[in-house]
Amino acid sequence: DEEENNTYDSYSDEELYEMLKNKDPELAATLHPNNSRRVKRALINLDNNKKANKDDLKLLYPARFFAIDKSIEEVNQNIVLRCDKMFEQGLIEEVKKIVVTHKDLTTAFMAIGYKEVLNGLQENKTLEEIKQDVIVHTRQYAKRQRTFLRHQFKNLIQLKRHDYPAMGSYYLLNKKNMKSQVLVSLNSTWK
């Protein structure tokens, strides 16, 4: 599998996209030319005769997708608080220990937090610089998640976070709340 992934590493994004367009123009049209990871994956799947079937992407049952939307400011504030907590609970020590005991866990070191600490230690960065790297990369990831939801779930129903009671980081809608708040407020959205 590792060898498969390296097959296309020597090609530029433009060359990869052209190769995909030649093999499957319809599939190429669904991918952005600069998204080399997805374009490579599509080429590898085509090489292995694993073409995505559009019927595989259809829902088996009618469904509605909901997301509780927080403001970007609130998300960013939570990211900073979570990052501070991770460092307080010993993230640096954890990474150092994993490096010594499990050098072969390359996938783990790609996770946000681990990779910034590892790079920071290797580059002799200060604790604040490492924290800032974790915060920036986590914000970028959160933005990619919002974009993914917006593009992949066209009929996603966004619920405003401040309209629902919160408990920790989970939002609870009991039957009474659902009937009195959610269904009433979303009736117009569902029609």
Order of helix and strand elements from N to C terminus: HHHHEHHHHEEEH
Distance between the termini: 47 Å
| Major sheet size, sense and barrel closure | 2 strands, parallel
Number of helices: 9
Q: Kindly estimate the percentage of residues that lie in beta strands according to DSSP.
A: 5-15%
Mean pLDDT value: 78
Q: How would you characterize this protein structure?
A:
- The structure is a single chain.
- By secondary structure, the protein is mainly α.
- It has nine helices and four strands, in the order H-H-H-H-E-H-H-H-H-E-E-E-H.
- The strands form two sheets. Strands 1-2 form a two-stranded parallel ribbon.
- A hairpin with a 2-residue loop joins strand 3 and strand 4.
- The chain is flat and about 50 Å long.
- The C terminus is likely disordered.
Summarize the structure.
This protein has 191 residues and is mainly α. It has helices at 2-6, 13-23, 25-29, 36-47, 72-88, 91-101, 114-122, 127-152, 175-190, and strands at residues 66-69, 157-160, 166-167, 170-171.
Protein topology:
Layout: H1 2-6, H2 13-23, H3 25-29, H4 36-47, E1 66-69, H5 72-88, H6 91-101, H7 114-122, H8 127-152, E2 157-160, E3 166-167, E4 170-171, H9 175-190
Parallel strand pairs: 1-2
Antiparallel strand pairs: 3-4
Helix pairs in contact: 2-4, 5-8, 7-8
Which structural traits does this protein have?
6% strand, two-stranded parallel ribbon, two-stranded antiparallel ribbon, 9 helices, mainly alpha, 191 residues
